[in-house]
Design a protein that fits this description.
With about 290 residues, this protein is mostly helical. The chain has twelve helices and two strands. A two-stranded antiparallel sheet has the order 1-2. The C terminus is likely disordered.
Length: about 290
């Protein structure tokens, strides 16, 4: 099952450059992994996939080194902050709260793809500092949820740089590699990775990524990106629904386990001693004895 999921996700990444974290993390949660472990496993999986397809974009000359440095200057500090926040909230708030935040972040970041493009192609060239500043929240989202580097990085470059679409995709793939590798180092150190699931995902993911790259010249990526965004929104809403229902259930449990009976008040137990009202009254024969 996992290798099929890995193949499909990786083929999507190979075709469009996005979808690694946006798809993998929610699917792993739905398969039963805890949120923090799902984020760590998805991040390592996304790092390996991008390492597989990155040489293709480098050889084609579709990477802008200057914009890549600016993106990383803002996103890496955000990644460290988001990764720390994930670990802290997972320890002190529990899985449902983390899952709810991740669901909201995934839904919002995927919805941004449908916002009309601003198209200010000269902005990044004249305001490099602002490009780094705008990359900071992308890093935070990636650190907290493993998603965002592909979709949000692509949107940022499409709107605020003069790069053509192939250069945008190639630069964003390298951008995602660095973020995923840095984040993966922390999750490997913390042990928040399911290695068995990871190897099964990679068994299908590596050939899937190569398959997607081969098809990327023949299939228009624009429509696929819209489909990927719609699926990511659906997965994000599913996480919000699941975590919200779990939180409501957890809040209702203390009320249902109250020691007061809803109709008769406190219930007496054996430890409270004998009930005088229900004591056995000796019969007439026993009284004569």
């Amino acid at each position: 099952m996992e290798w099929i999921v890995g193949f499909l996700i990786a083929a999507t990444v190979g075709l469009t450059g996005i979808g690694g974290g946006s798809f993998t993390m929610p699917v792993l949660v739905l398969l039963g992994l805890p949120p923090a472990t799902a984020v760590g496993t998805a991040m390592v999986f996304a790092a390996v996939l991008r390492l597989v397809i990155a040489p293709v974009y480098i050889v084609r000359g579709h990477v802008h080194a200057g914009y890549l440095r600016l993106l990383l200057a803002g996103a890496v500090p955000g990644l460290l902050l988001g990764t720390w926040a994930l670990r802290a909230m997972d320890q002190f708030s529990g899985g449902p709260v983390v899952l709810l935040i991740v669901g909201f972040m995934l839904t919002i970041s995927s919805t941004v793809g449908f916002v009309p493009r601003l198209r200010r192609p000269g902005f990044a060239r004249k305001n490099g500092g602002w490009l780094a500043f705008l990359a900071f929240p992308i890093g935070m989202e990636t650190g907290f949820s493993s998603a965002g580097a592909g979709a949000m990085g692509t949107i940022l470059l499409l709107n605020f740089s003069e790069l053509a679409v192939p250069e945008v995709v190639g630069t964003d793939v390298l951008f995602g590699i660095v973020l995923a590798v840095v984040g993966s180092a922390f999750h490997l150190g913390w042990g928040s990775i399911d290695r068995v699931i990871l190897f099964r995902l990679l068994a299908g993911g590596i050939p899937g990524a190569l398959f997607g790259v081969v098809l990327s010249k023949r299939i228009p990526a624009h429509r696929l990106r819209m489909a990927v965004a719609l699926i990511a929104i659906a997965l994000g809403l599913q996480l919000v629904w699941t975590s919200g229902r779990s939180l409501l259930h957890n809040r209702a449990e203390p009320q249902n386990s109250s020691p007061l009976h809803p109709r008769t008040g406190p219930q007496k137990t054996r430890a409270d001693g004998p009930d005088i009202g229900s004591a056995i009254v000796p019969g007439p024969g026993e009284m004569k004895r």
